[in-house]
Amino acid sequence: MENGGGDKTLKKIGEAFQDIAKAVNSETVDIEVAPFSHACSLVSPLFRCLGIAFKFAEMDYVAKVDDLEKASSSFSTLGALLDRDIERNCVRQSGSHSRNLLRVKRGLDMVKVLFEQMMASNEESLKNSASTAYARVLAPHHGWAIRKAVAAGMYALPTKTQLLKRLNEDEASAKIQMQNYINASTPVILFINKLFLSKELGIDW
Questions:
Q1: How far is CA 59 from CA 2, 64, 107, 151, 165, in A?
Q2: The whole model's pTM is what?
Q3: Do 189 and 110 touch, CB atoms closer than 8 A?
């Protein structure tokens, strides 16, 4: 399997989202599309390292992050991106930037919950942590066939040690970087939820 990176994937993810979180926690009232989409792109190798269980999630996530990266040339902020879809009455249409943003946000949320579960567990197996993260964040939005495929793939997950090796991390450094991501992504995820709700778009679709 392709290695997640001798370039310290977790460190890069944590640092990128810390920068986004700083913007959210400042006087800024919006998130810029370009740095956000770049930060999201750094998460893609993690999905890849989780193997076949998250193959669909990886493909879906990568495609939608790619769309947001392209959209960054036309829209400066996430709010502006949503406003344009509202004007065009295409928020919930397949392929819309708004729909893609919502799905990318769920990908970020699933990774956050996965890290939280891993931090709270001493198990070498990732099955329980990954199953909980998937069930809590993505499963409610997936059909039966995808849920069944993910459940079957859970038995092919790497162990914690294997995952950290693919990410070029030891357990001590990984815990620091995972906590950094949890801390930084939480306000970003909440901001995106509030952005959708403030425009009366909902987040459960």
A1: 15, 9, 11, 17, 23
A2: 0.93
A3: no
